[in-house]
Prior knowledge:
The chain has a seven-stranded mixed β-sheet, sandwiched between helices. A four-stranded antiparallel β-sheet has the order 13-14-17-16, with no helix packed on it. Strands 1-2 form a two-stranded antiparallel ribbon. Helix content is 40%, strand content 16%. The radius of gyration is 22 Å and the shape is globular. It is built from eleven helices and 17 strands. It has two domains: 3-27 and 277-389, Aspartate Aminotransferase, domain 1 (Alpha-Beta Complex), CATH 3.90.1150; 29-274, Type I PLP-dependent aspartate aminotransferase-like (Major domain) (Aspartate Aminotransferase, domain 2), CATH 3.40.640.10. It has helices at residues 29-43, 57-71, 85-97, 112-120, 137-149, 173-185, 209-214, 244-251, 261-301, 326-335, 365-382; strands at residues 3-6, 9-12, 15-16, 80-83, 103-107, 124-128, 130-131, 134-135, 154-159, 190-193, 221-226, 238-241, 306-307, 315-319, 338-339, 341-342, 355-359. It is of the alpha/beta class. The chain binds pyridoxal-5'-phosphate. Pyridoxal-5'-phosphate (PLP) binds at residues 20, 85-87, 111, 113, 160, 165, 193, 195, 226, 228, 233, 238.
Amino acid sequence: MASAAISGTTTPTVYDFGSGKPDPRTFPSEALGQAAQRVLLREGPSLASYPEARGYVPLRELSALRFERNHALRVPVGDVVTTNGSMQAIILATQALSRPGDTVVVEEYCYSGTLGVLRQLGAQLEGVPLDDDGMRPELLDATLDRLKREERRVGFVYSIATHQNPTGTIMPLERRRQVLEICRRHDVILVEDDCYADVVFEGEMPRSMYAMAAGSDPDRVIYIGSFSKILGPGVRLGYFIASESLSARLMAYKRDGGTSGLSSMIVAEYMKDQLWAHAAEVCDVVRSKRDTLFAALNRELGGLVDWTHPHGGLFTWLKLPEGVDTKAIAALAKERNVLYATGRSFDAADRDVPYLRLAFGYIADDLIDPGVELLGQCIEGAAPGGPTQRQHATTAAA
Length: 398
Ligand SMILES: Cc1ncc(COP(=O)(O)O)c(C=O)c1O
């Protein structure tokens, strides 16, 4: 096994395709340090009090500006609530909108953290199948019809419409209209998780469903954003945007004394001038890693697996060969220190599905090629018939 020397001792090399984190080299430690000094000298004593219930105003203003630039809608700062990571917004939405035993409708493959919250808070899950354009509206409609017939109460619909986690799909504008119309007809709230906003490698992103509904149907959508993917999850800052009446429902469950004023101040002070330049830098670094990963996958696994080609976000979703033993892959990968997320962890129905998710934001560039080579050995080793059955392909999977 490869090793790296650290202060005279050797630690095994870990090939971390596991979780969705940006590159640690893009974390702006120095600039944040300077921002911290500026803002603390100016406003430090205010930290002797609890933060405002809805969060530090300059960070909420910044979140509103970010939303306006991306989605062409100016939202009142009062409609923005800062949270302890976007995860807290997901928890608050679940607590406020879904009683234990209610059903929450999600994409068939959905961020494992959200699935964990929903299960823990007693929601029953219904997964709507995805295609290359995200959640399929006709199946969402059919699911909501069936739930109505079965007299099951629906808490909300949850969608990651842009750079879906784990599949990386982007829901086009027309489909967003259809999804909104279906939610309106069934009178169900849509929670739109836009955690990967601004991790964009190419192309224009469709407008958010929150912005699309705001004029005509303002209580239909709750929008969730995060600073984790363009800065780092360690800062624990996210937010939700919702109408007054919806945000009041979520605020009733926010009993945490407020989101960290210290973290909020430092990030707002840094981001007020640097948000777009910093996001562009993060995207350049992650885009290049995505391209390295795709080249390695093509070389090592072309013809054996298919994978998605996301235009943003931090993941690709690999379809494994039919009949492959996913537990055997996991065991082989563990021996080789190759980390990835299993398909099962994203499956709304908790099935052992023949997929795995590779994250490409955090892993060091020079570990991508050897990591994919090792992963290839694991998949080949677990494929039905073993390594000799592999058919080498010359073109990329679509
Ligand atoms: C879709 C999605 N939503 C929310 C989160 C939670 O992020 P955080 O709480 O760090 O903002 C993640 C993290 O991976 C995610 O992928």
